[in-house]
Amino acid sequence: MEPLFGVVLGLILAVASPAHDSCTCVTNKWAVCAQEGPGNCTCRLPGSAHPVDCSTLTSKCFLMKAETTPLQEKRLWRPPHGVSGMDGIYSPDCEDSGDFKARQCNRSSSCWCVNSAGVRRTEKGGRSLSCRELVRTRWISIELTHEGSSSAFGVPDVAQSLSQLFESRYKLHPKYIAAIKYDPPLIQIRLDQNKKPRGDVDIADVAYYFEKDVKNDSVFPSDSKLTVSVNGDALAIEKLWIYYVDEKPPEFCMRQLAAGISAVVTVVLLTAGVGIAVLLVLRWLRTKTYKKFECKEMREIKAPSSELP
């Protein structure tokens, strides 16, 4: 009887194992998934009670929230290359849709306004700071350089390879890739998306996934490593820069600009003052030398006349 029970148990485990293994998130390695019934696999991120749609990219806000949420071991979880920017890592407030809330605050009660990509667009203020709307990031400029500047690829081939990469890996519709320019070893990619229709991925999420891929901290599972090739030859990305342009200009105070202008004016005035001082010293030295030479000549002229009877 026991051997028969062992066989039956083994068959049950064999059937159950594939169902358990299939309960994973193919677009987010940080998602925690659980089988909640036959064919019902639910995945969630740390710090969010909302289910994750693993058929598309996870919103940048939910990802940043997960990166700053302590695990069950009560320690702060930070990947090898944590989310860092001009303001450092912070835990964002997200809407139920995954969008950033227009106003973000840290634990020290310092608040600021962000755009739809989560990038600060105002000076920091207190809790009384008001952000009227979440300004959309209209287009994103991605600049990168590849290794081996002497080995250039064909311009059309680079554009085609990168377009296919963004379409297949990041689910981005080609209509949002406004332009790809290549001047070896620099590659410029412009993503343009005035509005995000329902069902389309956001260019801010695409840029974030791509940045994580390039920095070897991919959001995708470990078996989905980024590989970029052009006609079969590897395109090794060396450096990466990402720039965000919003529908409305940022609202930074003029005192930053005034401070910068003041610093420039100070440097110019100091340089001019030093230059004038040097010229005055040189002129004084030249005048002094000339007077000494003139006195010496006068003494030589007067000396013979004193010997006359």
Overall average residue pLDDT: 80
How many strand segments? Answer: 10
What characterizes the major β-sheet? 4 strands, antiparallel
Taking Cα atoms only, what radius of gyration do you get, to the nearest Å? 33 Å
Provide a count of the helices: 5
- What gross morphology would you assign? extended
Order of helices and strands: HEEHEEEHEEHEEEH
Structural class: alpha+beta
The spatial strand order of the largest sheet comes to 6-7-5-10
Portion of residues in beta strands equals 15-25%
Question: What percent of residues adopt helix (DSSP H or I)?
Answer: 25-40%
- Termini, distance in Å? 155 Å
What low-confidence regions span 5 or more consecutive residues with pLDDT below 50?
A: 1-20, 72-85, 254-259
Structure report:
By secondary structure, the protein is α+β, with helices and mostly antiparallel strands. Helices cover 34% and strands 17% of the residues. The protein contains five helices and ten strands. The strands form four sheets. It has a four-stranded antiparallel beta sheet, covered by helices on one side. The chain has a two-stranded antiparallel ribbon with strand order 1-2. It is extended and about 100 Å long.
